Amino acid sequence: MNKRRNILPGFGLSLGYTLLYLSLIVLIPLSAAFIKTTELSWQEFWTVVTAPRVVASYKLTFGASLIGALLNAVFGLLTAWILVRYTFPGKKIVDALVDLPFALPTAVAGIALTAVYATNGWIGSLLEPLGIKVAFTPLGVIVALTFIGLPFVVRTVQPVLEDLESETEEAAASLGANRWQTFYKIILPAVWPALLTGFALAFARAIGEYGSVIFIAGNMPMVSEITPLIIITKLEQYDYAGATAVAVVMLVISFALLLLINALQWWTNHRLTASK
Fold it and tell me: Structure pTM?
């Protein structure tokens, strides 16, 4: 019997190339960050990463990233639903606008958001009489992180909704289910894994965002200063060990949160599979 020839190389060679590539791009640089922190003693490391200004930046960065990702999970699902289930004038334009945060340089996005939400901007001037200030506040950070994270949710959920047959919803309605029951029992379980993936991607993207945030945040210590800016500031002061220490804390927390989200996604998929 002739052995079937594959176009791609075998498992061993493919795995070798994959591990080499991941090592060069991911593992070695991240390992270097941990090694760099060994220049500090444990007491020095702890002093750097628990400084009040740094801790305040942790709270803002992770808190704003979480809020932005949650907002994108809700409105990203709604946007994907509109794009999949309805036909309307300008639909292709709206679909293209979803990808704009992908293509737009982050600095341009930050300047544009600041111009719009500043007190003399189009939206900021309308919000100021209501006592709502967006630019140069933590709220501005949330707006910027929501802006850059929206495409991750929409583009993750959209293909799942396209594969979801509308006949299933019609069958549920014919059996007496109302709209909420149809959404909760039929639609949400089908899109939940993709929605959770989009949420995780948006959250991870927001944690490391820098360019679009520094313009609208105002960068006031203890108020609107994000952790990536803390790292940049330490690098400008030639405090490489301190910058690396803060970066390592960000890395560990981000990895732990993403691991938790992936575990939740696996549990959800396992539960859905077992219920079928």
Answer: 0.85
